[in-house]
Design brief:
266 residues; alpha/beta; binds zinc ion
């Protein structure tokens, strides 16, 4: 309890001083809005201005047109490697996997807390904070990577989300955070291509980009879940393929064909 020693008429400043501090009641006790460690009970993310706000997206500046043949790229999105592009790969950020673990732990803790208890409130806040952190990082990562791709490619051919390996145990665990981020990545990339006038086409997920030999067109490459582990293979035509490089070539070729045929947007 805060001591109040007041004599004589109240000046306005004195009166103000007697009013409870924000978050405290008349006796100076902490109210329900404040917990012992100063953490807010409302999720912090509500108060942070989102970069996705319209103000964060000024009109698109013109980007120089690039040589189509030289810079167009196929993109294969996946689990072990985030994205395979022409001549480079984007590694999966370790961040997602790490936060996934933290989230699981926090959610387990939350489920053990008694309803209506203050521990439950704290656990809820912890879960909300992790979700917010993941969302922020994911947004940054996607923003950064899609910007780079659009800057250096005149056309982008994206394999429509193949859920390679999603049936496996490993895949299932990765699904919640990682898979959602792949969908967001694909949408952001498509939007950016439209915005900056880059060519864009989606290649059907059943297109055998991995199994097809980019040299002779026969379909005898690695298949299914076992195929996920195959890094390189030799076609009967004699061509030796890096699995990812071969897939990108096939996606690029197919995307280019679709775009030329004007069927890409369907
Ligand atoms: Zn071949």
């Amino acid at each position: 309890m805060r001591p109040h020693f007041v004599s004589g008429p109240l000046s306005s400043t004195r009166a103000a001083r007697l009013l409870p501090l924000p978050g405290r009641d008349q006796d100076g006790r902490r109210g329900p809005e404040e917990t012992g460690n100063g953490a807010r009970t409302t999720p912090a993310r509500k108060r942070v201005p989102r970069p996705s706000h319209p103000a964060a997206h000024p009109p698109a500046p013109a980007v120089p047109e690039l040589n189509w043949e030289e810079t167009e790229t196929g993109i294969d999105l996946g689990l072990s490697t985030y994205a395979v592009l022409r001549g480079r790969k984007i590694a999966s950020p370790k961040f997602f996997r790490r936060q996934e673990k933290k989230l699981k732990r926090a959610q387990r803790k939350l489920s053990r807390c008694e309803k209506g208890s203050s521990n439950r409130r704290k656990a809820k806040l912890a879960v909300a904070k992790i979700h917010a952190r993941i969302a922020d990082k994911r947004r940054d990562f996607i923003e950064q990577e899609t910007t780079r791709i659009v800057r250096e490619s005149q056309a982008v051919y994206l394999e429509d989300l193949n859920v390679k390996g999603m049936g496996s145990k490993k895949g299932k665990r990765a699904k919640s955070v990682h898979d959602r981020s792949l969908g967001m990545f694909a949408r952001a990339l498509e939007a950016k291509c439209a915005r900056y006038g880059r060519g864009f086409a989606k290649v059907d997920r059943f297109f055998p980009s991995t199994q097809m030999c980019s040299a002779c067109g026969s379909i005898e490459g690695p298949k299914g879940l076992e195929g996920l582990r195959v890094r390189s293979w030799t076609c009967s035509c004699g061509a030796v393929h890096d699995r990812d490089v071969n897939a990108e070539i096939n996606i690029r070729r197919e995307g280019k064909r679709l775009l030329a045929a004007g069927r890409a947007e369907r």
